[in-house]
Amino acid sequence: MTTDEAVGRDRATAILLGDGLGPHVVPALLDLAVAEHVIHRWGWRIEHGPGGFHLLKEPPAAQVFYVTVQSGGRTGWLLGPYSTGADAVTDIGTARRLARQADPFAWFGAFGVTQVTVPAGRPPPRGKLNRLAAAWARQEIEIPGP
Question: Which of 57, 73, 94 is the last residue of a domain?
Fold first, then answer.
C-alpha cells in the first residue's frame, strides 16, 4: 500500500515504528508540510511521484570541516570542506597567509576550524579561498610569508 492510498494526497503525518517494521502512515488533520517535517525529523523523506507518495530513507547528513576566520561577529569559511578536523587544522597557516594577501585587515581575525553539518543530498559549499589556494599550490601565484 502506498502512502497515497493510506492517507490521501493532501493530509498526512508519519509515525515511524522501530524493530524493522518500517514506516506506518496514519491519517491526521495536519497539513502536508507539517507531516513532511515530522517525517524528515525521523530521517525519512516524502517523494511525490506519478504513482503517489512514497517514503524513502534519507542518507545521513555529512559532517565536514572548514578553516574559518572570525572578525567583528562575522565568520568566513576560507578553505574546505575537509573530511576531518585534523586535515583542516594543518591548513590554518595557509588560510591565514591567503586571507592576509586578499584582505590586509585579516591580520585582526581569529583563525580556526569549524565543523558543519551538511544536509543529505546537498554538496558542501566550497571555501572562499579554495581557488586561490589551488593557484598557490600550482605555483601560479606567490604569497609572501607570515
Answer: 57
